[in-house]
Amino acid sequence: MRLVGVSAAATVIRGGGPVITIGDGIAKPTVSISRVAIRDGLNSSTPDPAIAAGGGILIPPLAAGNATGAAVTISDSVIADNRVAPAQLTSGAGPPCGHPCAFALGAGIDNSGTLTLVDTRVSGNVAGSTSTDTSVATEADGGGIFNHPQGSLILQRAWITDNHTVVTATNAQFAQGGGIYTDGRLTVELGVVSGNSAEVSTSIPSSFPFDVQTEANAGGVRISEFPGASATITGARISGNRVDSFNSGGDVQATNGGIDDNGSLSLIGSSVDHNTVNAAAPPLSGFLAGAIDGG
How do residues 60-113 score in pLDDT, each as one tens digit? Predict the structure, then answer.
């Protein structure tokens, strides 16, 4: 299947939540998209009211065995100004959090398939809260792109810029991977990851049932601790990303302004610079970690 526009400026696919879903969980299509803009999506309830995944593009896994979904190539395109903001919290103290929680994943793209971006920009997408309203999300991951464990993500001359993971609800805790969050395989070739951010602003007392009450992590790229998570970054620039973590009620952590590697990382001929971290907590907080690994 092919979708070809005139240009990203002239051919715009707008709105919905997600704007485009590729695959139905049963079939495994091969899709090519070029010269379009995919923008202004708002996903608050897919696949679940407490888990919003994919504001612009959602590539779901196969239902059978949670296997890798569609094979997708996107070229000469723009994925911009999309948002994921879950509509409600889980109930009670059961899984997955042990307390009410909600997740915002992959505001620009949520990928469980084999995805290649070529000469494409992912920009201005927000997972979680915006400056004008508050999401119920307790965790936001992958402002630009979230890549799941079964996913393969290849970026060739791609710009991942000015995307954000933000949580500001009263019980907000985690914001990670402002640009990219990967649990799977990531390859970046001659790309730019710049101006992205991960931000937590909340008020959680130190009695809350976690050692670290709030954590903002990886303004640019987060390679998770999930088994098999890996990234190879070649000829890329990771610059000007930031992490901000503020908790008026208790402990706080802010780490890894540019790249957080908990899996396997090969960094070749690339620059990681001018990334920053900021943290603030009450004077009596038992744990404050700020300005750790601005790179």
Answer: 999 999 999 999 999 999 999 999 999 999 887 666 777 789 999 999 999 999
The rounded distance, in Å, linking the Cα atoms of 115 and 182 is: 13
What is this structure's pTM?
Answer: 0.94
Place of tokens 């009620």: 249
How far is the C-alpha of 277 from the C-alpha of 255, rounded, in Å? Answer: 6
> What's the confidence (pLDDT) of residue 290?
44
List strand residue ranges (DSSP E) for 22-173, in order.
30-34, 37-39, 42-43, 47-48, 51-53, 57-59, 71-75, 78-80, 83-84, 103-105, 109-111, 114-118, 121-123, 126-128, 139-141, 145-147, 152-156, 159-161, 164-167
Q: Are 182 and 229 in contact (CB under 8 A)?
A: yes
Token output for 260: 């957080």
Number of domains in the chain: 1
Give the range of the structural domain holding residue 30, as residue numbers without chain letter. Answer: 2-292
With residue 188 as reference, give the H or E element that holds it.
Answer: strand 185-189
Least-confidence region, from 152-161, 196-205, 220-229, 274-283: 274-283
Cα angle 155-157-159, degrees, rounded to a multiple of 5 = 80
Longest dimension (CA), the chain: 59
